[in-house]
């Protein structure tokens, strides 16, 4: 990219290209999110640490949420999924949430980073704080505000789905592990819908 600022991590000789600059930003973002948490990290601070202009961070990732999703390899971009879910009629949200969870967790490549984050959050307070801040700000808070649903109800729905996903994909408890997607939707969606109504 012509005129792109030189990343601090660049070696001598040739100027870093977009890929190297992008990776340098992500490396700094990972460190900052781990050190200061989601709420304590800003795009400007990430840019300063990476030695680039904040506009370049915005160009690559859009928002702090976008940086987090990329840096932590979060398998779902809330800025894409939430508007899709919230555009549905309210009476279909329970089913849509169950299907979304099954789609994400059913993909081994997308499930792996979720499991790594959950394990880290269960054993490390800094990791737990970072995930709590991100999930509260980027997911639950935005969903509750947009859908006019109490936070406790949204947390209950998400907690229910995380429990189902762990039984199905981590512990592989039968018959949950081999149940069809439609069976699980029929079983779980009405409970989620009750939380959301």
From TrEMBL:
GO terms for molecular function: DNA-binding transcription factor activity; transcription cis-regulatory region binding. It comes from the Bacteria. Gene3D superfamilies: Homeodomain-like (1.10.10.60), Tetracycline Repressor, domain 2 (1.10.357.10). The keyword Secreted does not apply. Keywords: DNA-binding. It comes from Actinomadura verrucosospora. Residues 42-61 bind DNA. This is TetR family transcriptional regulator. Residues 19-79 form the HTH tetR-type domain. Residues 1-20 are annotated as: Disordered. Transmembrane segments: none annotated.
């Amino acid at each position: 990219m012509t005129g792109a600022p030189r990343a601090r991590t660049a070696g001598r000789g040739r100027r870093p290209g977009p890929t190297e600059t992008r990776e340098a930003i992500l490396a700094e973002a990972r460190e900052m999110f781990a050190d200061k948490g989601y709420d304590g990290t800003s795009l400007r601070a990430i840019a300063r640490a990476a030695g680039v202009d904040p506009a370049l961070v915005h160009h690559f990732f859009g928002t702090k949420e976008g940086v987090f999703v990329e840096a932590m390899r979060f398998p779902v971009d809330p800025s894409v999924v939430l508007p899709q879910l919230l555009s549905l009629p309210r009476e279909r949200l329970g089913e849509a949430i169950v299907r979304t969870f099954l789609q994400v967790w059913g993909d081994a490549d997308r499930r792996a980073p979720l499991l790594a984050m959950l394990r880290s959050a269960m054993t490390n307070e800094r990791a737990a704080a970072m995930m709590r801040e991100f999930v509260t700000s980027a997911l639950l808070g935005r969903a509750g505000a947009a859908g006019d649903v109490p936070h406790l109800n949204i947390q209950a729905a998400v907690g229910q789905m995380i429990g189902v996903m762990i039984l199905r994909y981590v512990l592989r408890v039968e018959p949950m592990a081999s149940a069809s997607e439609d069976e699980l939707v029929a079983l779980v969606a009405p409970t989620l819908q009750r939380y959301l109504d």
